[in-house]
Amino acid sequence: MEPKIKPKSKEELALEFGRSMTEMKSFIRQYIQVKIKEHNINITFEMLEVMACLWKKDGINQQEIADITLRDKSSMTYLIDNLVKRQMVKRVEDEVDRRNKLIFLTDEGNKLRATLMPWVAEVYQMATVDVDMRALEDGVMMVNKMLNNLKM
């Protein structure tokens, strides 16, 4: 007689799910870093995350970028300083609040998108090759629901 396998609890499944998401992010990061290194692009994965925010919405402030990328303000200052040195972004004084600096992409930063975004699309295509659209939609809804539960 086969031993009975105890079904996993909801908490155990959620823990396993969170670990799997962390592992997936790590694989994606490694993949992108290899591509960046192969093509001798002077940017880190963390800088790429900042750039991706600006490709979605250019001209936002440092705190907004920090919130989106889940980084603290001091590490965001360091990342943006390095992107400025690489001439990928520029800081512009906010006309409404002069203490606030808005971060804008430069032409160089915009050009980089054409190189990097196909690699991002490629890795996500690889990850979802045998996953149907409905399962992805359900997964996004589930993660968002879990996040909302934690924010309450």
Automatic annotation (TrEMBL):
One of its GO terms (molecular function) is DNA binding. It comes from Mucilaginibacter frigoritolerans. This is DNA-binding MarR family transcriptional regulator. PANTHER family: TRANSCRIPTIONAL REGULATOR, MARR, TRANSCRIPTIONAL REPRESSOR OF EMRAB OPERON. Transmembrane segments: none annotated. Pfam families: MarR (PF01047). Residues 10-148 form the HTH marR-type domain. InterPro entries: HTH_MarR-typ (IPR000835), WH-like_DNA-bd_sf (IPR036388), WH_DNA-bd_sf (IPR036390). PROSITE patterns: HTH_MARR_2. Keywords: DNA-binding, Transcription, Transcription regulation.
